[in-house]
Known about the structure:
about 75% helix
Amino acid sequence: MNRFFITVGYSGLAPVAPGTVGSLVALVAGVLLLLFAGTQTLFLATILATVAGIKMIDLYEAQSGTHDDKSIVIDELAGMWLALGIAPGVKISTESLLDLSSGHAIMILCAFGFFRLFDITKPSYIGRIDRNVKGGMGVMGDDLLAGVAAGICAAMLWQIWLWIAQGWGL
């Protein structure tokens, strides 16, 4: 059960780009949570996944003797969900998600893109957490900060989109 959880349904066992595959699985699950349960539930689920993830990663690292194994993608799930929770700013509905002119689908993809960018490149404090903090806190911490940064960047793009749309009468 621990391995299933920390690999997010074994998506972290993908032979190529397990972090991206895990992030895609998290994106789909996060959008479904937003559609059917709302932002508050997504944030609560993120907290639960984070706390459980830290504990399970600590157990896994103690048993395996490895730190931040590539197959561990529960950190991508928590970071992606945090980015999604920050980015929307409005209640997403099935109609708005499917209507590309509303910008919601584009914003969600931006949150995903920014999250992967920050998770892979690890700029500033994201990289510092990755290098200096050990155990489950280190594994989860850099992705949580990447999620916050991604959500803020996607929200800023959303505001720019609205500003442009209003100025052009779209």
